[in-house]
């Protein structure tokens, strides 16, 4: 019997979905890798989504409409986009089953455990099955951690590849075995590779970029991202077998001050020269830039992106000036 595909709006405990024999589908990854992601945004606007709403939300909406085999959605109602509530309602309107999942703002362990167990109830699985799935996924995560280490410690991996393998750990591309083979092939190709020569080491913090040429542009100018904050968090880089604790350590859905603890630790460990803070247009996280700038003691460039596209001339000029200042 064909496995049921379950959409997710951001990283959730996918161990539960895999344990149930279902296939998680990170709608963000499907949207942004669509041949025409801008068209998906326009489709949502034609359906009635306002212009001044985050393009990711509009893209997720149209992605579900396009993929009629996704009839169930796990949506994060606390700890991610504040527009997800309306996304859920508009998808319920067309018959999609929506399962809410909430990360407690204060990282309360009991509340988080309750949320995970409610999710387990919806999918009809127990802890034994979930932990078996965790064990399998952890084998792959460790290999992706190695890609990240080779990025900042051995200088063998570019910023785009670092981004791509880590961001795909949100759903393992719906096929952990195939994804693991991709990871293995990539690691095999790195053996004997020469270290990269970019002199400027950058951190990228915030949600993954909606433009697709940022990393290449930076590397053409002698700068390389050696730390992708949110993407790294998608790999759950924590050595604990306690699933609840692991999603409690995961920083993305919690407050900016907890995220800054991780960011501060990593930029120091990776000897970063400057930070790019990406803020999506119409996202509440833009306000947090105020706090980031006060707390981080490194040069910071704040970039704003709207619709899926390539870097515009103004953004390229700002990146050029930032890199020149760091040299």
Describe the 3D structure.
With 327 residues, this protein is an alpha/beta fold. It has a domain at 5-128: 3-Layer(aba) Sandwich (Rossmann fold), CATH 3.40.50. Helices cover 50% and strands 15% of the residues. It has 15 helices and eight strands. The protein has helices at 14-19, 27-32, 37-47, 55-66, 84-93, 109-123, 127-152, 159-167, 176-190, 214-220, 229-233, 243-249, 256-269, 289-295, 313-326, and strands at 5-8, 23-26, 70-78, 97-102, 200-206, 223-228, 274-280, 300-305. The strands form two sheets. It has a four-stranded parallel β-sheet, with helices on both faces. Strand 1 (5-8), helix 1 (14-19) and strand 2 form a beta-alpha-beta unit. Helix 4 (55-66) packs parallel to helix 5, helix 6 crosses helix 12 and helix 7 packs antiparallel against helix 8. The longest helix is centred in the middle third of the chain and has 26 residues, at 127-152. The chain starts with a strand and ends with a helix. 43% of the residues are buried.
């Amino acid at each position: 019997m064909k496995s049921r595909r379950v959409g997710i709006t951001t990283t959730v405990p996918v161990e539960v979905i895999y344990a149930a024999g279902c296939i998680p589908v990170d709608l963000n990854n499907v949207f942004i890798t669509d041949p025409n992601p801008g068209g998906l945004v326009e489709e949502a606007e034609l359906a009635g989504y306002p212009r001044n709403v985050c393009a990711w939300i509009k893209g997720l909406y149209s992605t579900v409409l396009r993929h009629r085999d996704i009839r169930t959605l796990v949506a994060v109602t606390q700890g991610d986009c504040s527009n997800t509530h309306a996304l859920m309602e508009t998808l319920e309107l067309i018959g999609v089953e929506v399962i809410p999942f909430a990360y407690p703002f204060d990282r309360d362990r009991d509340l988080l455990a309750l949320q995970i167990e409610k999710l387990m109830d919806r999918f009809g699985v127990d802890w034994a099955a979930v932990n078996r799935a965790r064990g399998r996924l952890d084998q792959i995560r460790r290999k992706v951690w190695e890609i990240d280490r080779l990025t900042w410690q051995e200088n063998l991996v570019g910023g785009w590849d670092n981004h791509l393998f880590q961001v795909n750990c949100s759903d393992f591309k719906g096929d952990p075995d195939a994804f693991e083979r991709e990871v293995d092939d990539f690691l095999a190709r790195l053996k004997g590779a020469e270290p990269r020569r970019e002199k400027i080491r950058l951190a990228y913090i915030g949600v993954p970029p909606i433009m697709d040429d940022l990393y290449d542009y930076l590397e053409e100018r002698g700068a390389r991202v050696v730390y992708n904050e949110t993407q790294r968090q998608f790999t759950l880089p924590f050595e604990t077998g306690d699933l609840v604790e692991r999603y409690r350590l995961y920083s993305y859905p919690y407050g900016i001050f907890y995220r800054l603890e991780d960011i501060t630790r990593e930029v120091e460990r990776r000897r970063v020269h400057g930070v790019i803070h990406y803020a999506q247009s119409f996202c509440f996280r833009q306000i947090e830039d105020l706090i980031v700038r006060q707390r981080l003691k490194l040069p910071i460039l704040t970039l704003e992106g709207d619709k899926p596209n390539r870097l515009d001339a103004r953004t390229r000029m700002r990146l050029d000036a930032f890199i020149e200042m760091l040299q």
